[in-house]
Queue: 2 jobs
Job 1
Amino acid sequence: MEPFIYIVALLLLGMALRLGNAPAGFAQSLNYFILYVSVPSTVVLQIPKINFDASLLLVAIMAWLLLIPSVAFALWLSRRESPQVRAALLLLLPLGNTSFLGIPILQALRGDAAIPYVLLYDQFGSFLLLSLYGAAVVARYESGALHPRLILQKMLLFPPMLALLFALFYGSLDAPLQPYIERLSQTLIPLALISVGFSLRFGEGVPWRLFAQASAFKLTLLPLLSLLIVLPFDLPPLVRDTVILEAAMPPMITAGALAVASGFAPALSAALVGYGLLLSLLSLPLIGWLLAYM
């Protein structure tokens, strides 16, 4: 219970900072530090702890497997809606908040041992989806041009991805460096939750029927689909639980920001991110409790 109180307290602190006199660019500066320092430090510490085997391939590709039903549901749900609503659903249903929220939630529910698998799911799944699929959706519905070379360059130079490649090829850091990298890594959870709280938006004019159907799919049906996918495999319980809980994360804040900035149903997009996060603070512990009894 205490870890969830801590999570809620940091989310509320982030919301309070937004309501105060935070300096211009506060969120951008916070996210810059998280993405360039906190996450890479966590990656180089945690990834070498993984004992790689064939079962981890499922962790890396699960987000891609769930892309197919997510796109199908978004197209069905938006069949009588505007192209802007369709674009919002195509962005927000497949992309989950698997890093900024996923790391603290999985740490609270399953402990530090789950973090390497969270990072594997996030970097090979959510991040690549945002970089490739997300960019394609924005380009398609803004009628812009898609530049695969620039997307690939940005993806390969992204600091967490560089840290992941370094950790995979180099392995554990030398002992004298470990304590200093650990201190930098410890900034991830508090800063990420404050950033999430600061970024939350709750708009008026929300189409509640669409919101309810999209949220039900994202928070309950997707984790159920992931459970059906992993059942035939003899995964260790921690790996299985991490995959399912990551699939159950609410929509990604970055995807929501992209949708709003692109004019893709801003009220619906903001509601799916903001209210979806609050709903997930109830649904995720429930899913975690159910998995513990499997």
Note: Residues 2-9+25-292 form a domain with the Na+/H+ antiporter like fold fold (CATH 1.20.1530.20).
Job 2
Amino acid sequence: MRLQTAVGDIHYEEWGKNNGPAVIFSHGRSHDHRTFAHQAEHFQKTHRVILWDLPDHGKTTVRPFTFAKAAAAMETLLDHLSIERAVHVGVSLGGFLGQYTAIHKPERIAALVDIASMPIYGSLSKRRAKIAAFFMRITAPLFPNRFFAWAAAKKMAYGGEVELYVKRQSLEFGKKRLLQTNLELMRELSRKHPHDIDKKTIIIHGEKDGKVLIKKSRKWAESKHVVAHVLIEDAGHLCHQQRPASVNGVLGEFLASLENA
């Protein structure tokens, strides 16, 4: 489905029960709503499931990607669907977006499921962010687009359909948008933390995910609002696609705990 706005179109899909608890899923960098196919099929029986393409991703034409634009687009979509608050499930870039929205538009977020990311604020010094941005700008022109697509596929997946999906999406996304999105993320990670996120949160990683992501999240898990930090066996960055049954089990228990609270 397509929601037309003054700043571009927002592509989304709605699954499940209209009167069920609302859950909105935000995908990772260069990916699209299809990354959550297993979750949509599973949770449509009990929840109102919203999948969408983030700004400058998939079929959404709001451009370029910034956290402010993405949070505003999500709010516009929730308003269109008459959803006051939703549980936010985000993977990687989508996880950072969930945190950003919970801080800047807290009234729209009921709880957070953060997959394959780390705290959005306080995880990167301004010096490190500047160094990272410098090397991104230097290296981007040196390699063809297919190299970045291959590297992303190898880093995020381990063969099979998931690796093919990542490679296709990365090739379509292109290194220009990749650089812009990465620079936006570096800027946000190095900004001062406005305040704590006071939403009930669960953190999920594949056990083979990046060591820095897991280490930073272990510290985050000490927060009183984080109920658990779960590692999914034999999975990497995209554990929700690689081991959907395991992730759906964890997610299902968390959603049930919210309804029973």
Note: The chain is about 45% helix and 20% strand.
